[in-house]
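To the team - pyrazine-2-carboxylic acid complex, inputs and output below.
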Amino acid sequence: MKALLIVDVQNDFLPGGNLAVPQGDEVIPEINALQPRFDLVVATQDWHPQGHQSFASAHPGKDPFEVVDLHGLEQVLWPDHCVQGSQGADFASALEKNRIAAIFRKGMHPEVDSYSGFFDNGKKYVTGLASYLREMKVTEVYVCGLAADYCVYYTAKDARNSGFETYYLTDATRCISRDTYEKAISDLQQIGVHLITTDEL
Ligand code: VGL
Ligand code: ZN
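Output:
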């Protein structure tokens, strides 16, 4: 079984959103075209409580994109984004949702960020995604969505480390920063994640 994992295609990550990924909207038609080619389609949704500790606004005197230590982990401070129940947290309206079988939310713990769809950044809590995929007899996971250098990267890494044959769809994702993207890609290559474009499918 092959699963398509759509990461965080939410309004706040699109142009005009609170944590806009440049050209983030361009992934939507790609992802819509991909969905019918998979046995199973699963989505993740960044879903933070108000005042989440990953928000710069929760750290007086700090600005977005500064890096702090949060309970022993390096934490990039973000603009407020994907607040539970807000319009920014909704899936993009142009995203085809009818085929999505399950949605895994992440980032709910007020003190810990969660880039990956599998675990929080401290690897203390699981979302249940790995068990779900195993239960569904999935062996191959194809990852796409936003952002290439954060949530798509960490989700692909954890998919691979959880034992799934993992494919990172390079043209169905966009990055926040070129530097972090390049590091992410070389790390994924080293751990055996396949980097492919949708036309290689
Ligand atoms: C993301 C930063 C903070 C992402 C989520 O979806 O890539 N990035 N929260
Ligand atoms: Zn977030």
